[in-house]
Amino acid sequence: MSDEKTVLVLQGGGALGAYQCGVAETLGAANTPVDWVAGISIGAINSALIAGNAPEDRIPAMRSFWERITSISKPFDFWTAWHPRRMANNMSAFRTTITGAPGFFQLRIPSASLRAPGTPGAHSFYDTAPLRDTLLELVDFDRINNDGCRLSVGAVNVETGNMTWFDSHETEIRPEHIMASGALPPGFPAVEIDGSLYWDGGLVSNTPLQWVLESQDGQSDLSIFQVDLFPARGDCPQSVWGSEAREKEIRFSSRTRLNTDVLLGLHEMHKTARRLARKLPPEFRDDPDLAKLMCGDRDPRINIAHLIYRRSAAETGSSDYEFSHRSMQLHWEQGKRDAERTLAHSRWQNRHSGSDLIETFDLAEIPQDHPASPERTEHESHGRGRKGVLDASDKPRLPKGPVQIH
Among 121, 150, 288, 366, which residue is least crowded by beta carbons within 10 Å? Predict the structure, then answer.
């Protein structure tokens, strides 16, 4: 049996990213090693804070970042403490739009809308130069580029519209790569890397799971902690504010079932090629094309712990840019609780005992005030079969060609 590697997959979602920090804190407390971390947008920032620090320094670095970017809201939180939660959240989000977040982004004055096209600052409402300074302070990029913890972040080429993955196994990672992954227009400016301009990777794919599944070495078994900030499943909204929130959930949620179905199809193709190899005369068994189809002697076993932030009834479509200190703490604590439940669950602890090649676990409780029904799980929204389990009986369609990233 091959050694198992632990992978963190961190979705984009702005201010909701504190939830991922709570998950990381629980994994650290449980002495869970991290071999690879992949992120998009705020997930890329959290990924850099993890990969760019020693295990004992990761949570202090993440705490420093999130305390800094929410620090300006502390007196505002005190003033709004007596307001209803939803009203206080909306007021906080409005405050963010006019003040920015310290150490992250700041409002351009005069506004980009008042600047002539092509002039400096005309292409975004905010300046993210503070983020570069913060990353250089809190992230050891030499460690990322030389240490064993692999880092992958995704961004979109502005001119081609294609997804580009910057991976520390292939590219020297710099602050610009992290900033590019979170450069969501028109709020944030495109980031130049080696002569090309890049925007937020969430414009094409908000979850790095596909990249992880496609670029893993094929030999090591994987335990993947996929930490999403937007659920795919939810009720029909009853107001325009609910519609805004639900639209974001649908647009930025992951498609876990689709990605794992494609991978299972590839595994079936590998097994077919191995069976064919055993039937061929010895002189044909070493053919390089056949070896490529076989992809080694075995396919890895992959277990995915799916942790999903589910907004409370008080949160609206502004939750991803509501950088209040109070909400940050709530998101962080929810991530800790969900991760603790997952690690303690018997199904996760016994994940190696089953016969399924790929299995997905959604084991955290849905908060009581969440609008979605607790009986429904994320994985039931992705397709057929038994809840959260993939095996050969699902009969996935084989891909018609090589998997491509766009």
Answer: 288
